[in-house]
Write a structure and sequence with these properties.
Layout lengths: L9 H13 L4 H12 L3 H9 L3 H13 L10 H9 L10 H11 L9 H6 L2 H9 L24 H20 L5 H17 L5 H19 L5 H24 L3 H18 L2 H17 L3 H12 L7 H15 L3 H16 L15 H14 L3 H16 L6 H17 L3 H12 L8 H16 L5 H15 L2 H7 L7
Helix pairs in contact: 1-2, 2-3, 4-5, 4-6, 10-11, 10-12, 11-12, 12-13, 12-14, 13-14, 14-15, 14-16, 15-16, 16-17, 16-18, 17-18, 18-19, 18-20, 19-20, 20-21, 20-22, 21-23, 22-23
């Protein structure tokens, strides 16, 4: 059963317009009913009385302005929406030329497009010109009705100067206003940090929904008006949130959607002019490209991010990601060199990570990357040492990321398997296999799948090896990405 439409929905407007037209009501009557019933501004009510879209209205206003003697108007859908909302928030005051063109397009009088609130907000000079140019109430003598618009007389020199001053004052009021304050911006960043931290330990789909909601709040604020400094802060928040959504999307196996989020995050970083955000976005895009098997692209993203001067630990993670890509390509020398650069970056870290959580590279996370790289380049003993170090470091952290911890155990198991110790591998995997399905993310299931394939290629046999393969198969069937794909309805966006 479909949910009932909200009052003022398109279906409601269409039904009202049809009923009133059948009843013989005039266009003005329909506009008045739209205003009172659905609490619309006058200009919006006239548009809906005609059944026009914003773009259709913009085209007709532009055409109408060419038929008038006043200045031409270049309208678009966004402008029409802002003219309709005026004098409310996120709006723009229509000039007398715009109102005249709008009246011409709607076949009404300018006065019918304004209510008391509009008149109070009009500059005094505009209101005076409007009153002076009001048409006579006598009925027209012509057989065919003339264009029902206000002919605005040419202002005197004094009025022109005063009008220009009023326009500047109106603009100054708009420029001084802001829809967000410094405390609100601080709160948005605090909520972003909380999401990035919570993601390390919580259900990914629940965190995805919360992150999406916060992103939408930031996007809505950006559609309003604020100081340039505040806009830059909002773009930074939006960039981190889209970066989080990209990371989460890839962990849920939705790599194409992750790429889209990554591109939007990059746009926000550019608009914010924020080097740390640029580097973290490129790290996220490197991660997505790696799991999408675009290894050269993953390496290039990591190198591009490393070129920015940053604070915090992003340079460490970027070097680890570059090593990851090289090791997957079988380039041992380049992979080990990138790991060495990660060590160097660790010694030169300056300042704290702005967001933290998933946007931080703690030593345990670095050792996790090192273990995976060493396994791929044929150094299982080194990989086992790195995995053991990673677990020891992780145990000392206040927050233990279950995804990182699972991958460390997988590296441990792979190192044992490389030396023919199937029982040691099964023991190392025990914590991973105990993860609840909602925590079985794509990187974990992919690495387990690679481990299962290596069992088949190796000469390892026996009950332990058979049990390991079966346990991995069962684990991967009941995973978060698989649940998302099989779930009814729409996935997260």
């Amino acid at each position: 059963m479909n949910a009932p439409s909200k009052p003022g929905s398109k279906a409601d407007r269409d039904a009202l317009r049809q009923d009133m037209t059948v009843a013989g009501c005039s266009l003005a009557d329909i506009a008045v009913e739209m205003r009172t019933r659905f609490r619309m501004r006058p200009r919006e009510a006239w548009r809906h009385a005609l059944g026009w879209t914003l773009q259709e209205t913009a085209d007709r206003i532009t055409q109408a302005s060419t038929r008038l003697t006043s200045e031409s108007v270049a309208a678009d859908a966004s402008l029409v929406g802002k003219w309709e909302k005026w004098p409310g928030p996120s709006s723009r005051r229509p000039s007398l030329s715009v109102l005249s063109a709008m009246a011409e397009a709607f076949a009404c009088r300018v006065e019918e497009l304004l209510d008391l609130e509009d008149r109070r907000a009009l500059p005094e000079a505009d209101l005076r010109l409007l009153i002076q140019g009001a048409p006579s109430t006598e009925p027209p003598a012509q057989a065919t009705p003339p264009s029902l618009i206000v002919t605005v007389p040419e202002p005197t020199r004094t009025e022109l100067v005063r009008l220009a001053a009023d326009e500047s004052a109106t603009w100054a009021q708009w420029a001084e206003a802001s829809n967000v304050g410094d405390i609100a911006l601080e709160q948005l960043m605090a909520e972003t940090r909380a999401l990035a931290s919570d993601y390390l330990t919580s259900d990914p789909l629940v965190l995805f929904i919360r992150t999406r909601a916060l992103r939408d709040r930031v996007f809505a604020l950006l559609e309003g008006h604020q100081y340039p400094r505040q806009s830059a802060d909002l773009y930074a928040a939006a960039g981190y949130l889209c970066g989080l959504l990209a990371w989460m999307s890839s962990d849920l196996g939705q790599l194409r959607d992750a790429d889209t989020q990554g591109r939007t995050a990059w746009l926000c970083a550019e608009l914010a002019g924020h080097n740390d955000l640029r580097a973290w976005v490129l790290s996220t895009r490197s991660k997505v490209a790696f799991w999408d098997r675009r290894l050269r692209e993953a390496i290039n993203f990591a190198r591009q991010g490393a070129a920015y001067r940053t604070k915090g630990t992003v340079a460490v993670l970027l070097a680890c990601q570059e090593a990851d890509g090289w090791s997957e390509l079988g380039a041992q020398e380049e992979a080990l060199a990138a790991l060495a650069r990660a060590e160097e970056a660790r010694t030169t870290v300056s300042g704290e990570d702005e967001i933290g959580g998933i946007f931080a590279c703690q030593p345990a996370r670095q050792e996790n990357y090192a273990a995976a790289v060493q396994l791929r380049v044929g150094r299982p003993a080194d990989a086992l040492r790195s995995a053991d170090n990673a677990l020891a470091l992780l145990a000392r952290q206040p927050v233990r990321a279950y995804g990182t911890e699972a991958q460390i155990h997988i590296s441990q198991a792979a190192a044992h398997l490389a030396t023919g110790e199937a029982e040691g591998a099964l023991e190392a995997l025990a914590p991973v296999l105990a993860l609840p399905p909602d925590h079985r993310l794509e990187p974990v299931t992919r690495r387990l799948g690679e481990l299962r394939s290596s069992i088949g290629r190796s000469h390892t046999s026996g009950v332990a090896a058979i049990g390991l393969r079966q346990a991995i198969e069962e684990f991967c069937v009941d995973s978060a990405p698989r649940h998302l794909v099989l779930s009814p309805g729409e996935g997260p966006a």
